[in-house]
Amino acid sequence: MRRLAGQIVVGLNLVAASALGQLPNPIPYDPAKVAAEQAAAVKALAEALKDSDVEVRRSAVLSLGQIGGDSEPATAALIEALKDSDVDVRGPAAVALGRVGAKAAAGVPKLSELLKDSDQDVRGAAALALARIGKPAAAAAVPALQEATAGDDKQTQVFARCALAVLDSKPDAHVTALGAALVDKKADVRAAAAYALGELGPTAKSAVAALKDALKDDDVNVRRSAALALAEMGPDGKPAVAGLVAALREADAGVRAAAAMALGSIGSDAAVGPLGDAVKDPEVDVREAAVAALAELGPAARPAIGALTQALKDENVDVRRAAAVALGQIEQGDDDSE
Description:
single chain, mainly alpha, globular
């Protein structure tokens, strides 16, 4: 809403300036100059990876990750950062390469090596990066991933299974193993399994029932991760709608917000009433998630128009903006269906 208002103001100013004969000359876009500036920035950040301070190196990795897919030198620098002596640099570098995706194919050999890293988080980040790089680029990592599933660390096993489910032409066995990990005796393994299933999205639809059960887990992180995973299932998550509606009454606000997100993604009409109630939740994140979910439901959310109209007066500006958008989505959807 603020962006739209800003565009309107700028437009009016330009019209007025034109009328007065004072329209400024536009600043020309010079692709060569922009490319040169980016190259200079990447070179400087690559040099920063040699800094003696770990926070400087870590910050450089995060910045390179934002450039990543748009620059081969940035990706090359991130691959080099995988060799850093500090886990707080290696881990973020692996995460960043995962975000780059298939363009980070050159990092597959080093990421495969990191599956044996001394740090659990780095091992997990490497496995997830390989999953996001995907096939065919990461196919060469399959033997290392298979070896990781046979290791002693169950959390690494989970993330390796996630990558194998992406790379294997028959992912069902890996999805089944991840579903079984949802009842592991260790909460961090259960949470990791839920996260991994969310990474797989509809590919893991056979685990929806297990994720629904995980919404009742004793550990709040597991419940939250399960709700977020169900949000990635789209319409395939419908068998979990009743469990997600119940989760809207959870004590933890993070779980309630994740449940609202999931209900919007799944698209069940049965969620409209409960989401309308959630628009009045005491926590702003839950209210905003509920409003956004109703927007996703479009015309089906018409019974919640009263709650959304009230949300236009919410004390939080983000909720008010989201409510305005949701009401437009409902009305636009009705117009399109006529």
